[in-house]
Amino acid sequence: MSIDKYILAIITINPKKVPSGTAVFHCDSVEEMETITANLEAILDGIAHALTKETYVIVKH
Amino acid sequence: MSEYTLPIIFGVVIGTLTRIFMLRTDYRQYPTYLHGKIIHVALGFIAAGLGTLVVPSILEEDFTAVTFLTIAASQFREVRNMERNTLAELDSYELVPRGKTYIEGIAIAFESRNYLVILSSLVSTLGYLLFNIWVGLAAGVITFFVSKKLMSGGRLDDIVEIEFVEPRFDGAGLYVDNIYIMNIGLPARQEEVLRYGMGFILKPKNFNARSTIANLGQRQAILHDVSTALGVYRDSGTPALVPLAKRDLDDGRVGVFVLPQHKDVEKAIEIIGKVPTLENAIRMPTERNMKEEGNQ
Questions:
Q1: What does the pLDDT average to over A5-27?
Q2: Pick from B224, B219, B133, B226: which is nearest to B181 by CA?
Q3: Where are the domains of chain B?
Q4: Total tally of structural domains belonging to chain A
Q5: Where in the sequence is the domain holding A10, given as residue range(s)?
Q6: What is the ipTM, given to two decimal places?
Q7: Which residues of chain A have a CB within 8 Å of the CB of B186?
Q8: What's chain A's Rg over C-alpha atoms?
Q9: How far apart are CA B59 and CA B47, in angstroms?
Q10: Measured between CB atoms, does A43 come within 8 Å of chain B?
């Protein structure tokens, strides 16, 4: 058994709601969150998923 | 020149021609290169030789000579391995991979076509030696058509109805009809997906078809064929842009989401319909019931 899905980064405007243990990017606005997510998606080769309106996760598939 | 020279040449020619006929480069784009073709024509020639030689050996009552057919069997099993390894290696560099089930299907076809060549050489040489060249030729033509029939398998439009559905987003979830495909977070990516994406619903015509299209290999084959024929809006480093096929657990329908470069609904439906039903994916749960009922 190997782990084939993994959270690479979390981007959020509500830091209270996200776990520790993963790279978390705190943002001030939704626009900033989307920009950072788009950049990280390209850099990390993962897919950006919307967990809630305030939190995106980048997952490696 | 012995009495067998002409019949042997005749049988080998018929067998090799059958192999060349069966070696077609189509939308699967394989084998595209000249060397790949030469390998298979050469192996077809060997198979034709083996098939042909069986007849004179039997007529000369040299029965042990027939055991060389066992060597042929192991030889052609090796062909299957070779094809499987080559295609599996290449698959990791495809934007939309074929999948292991499709590769196994292609490898099996390569092996079995050599056996069809043995059959056609054997039958045509037998016809020539027992009667005359015309009977041999007729036997060759008949096996030619038998081979044609045997090598064409079923197609997807025999077992499913295909319907175009515009994909849509519900929050971050991408849906084709009511089938959930994947979660795409970024609004910019969502727009891209809606601009280029196409959705299709495959509705199984019966219970057997339901199990067949549920097979992950069969679904991957559909995605690969559509992406090969219509192009794919995708590159390495854009993992969000990925064609996917998901299943409706309630009724067994399959939602296919593709990102073709050439957005043509009619053509896409035609292509999905022509995807081969993979031998390894075919399931027939109802056959079991019928047989059991028959025994009672």
A1: 88
A2: B219
A3: 5-152, 157-285
A4: 1
A5: 6-16+29-60
A6: 0.84
A7: 34, 37-38, 41, 48, 50, 56
A8: 11
A9: 20
A10: no
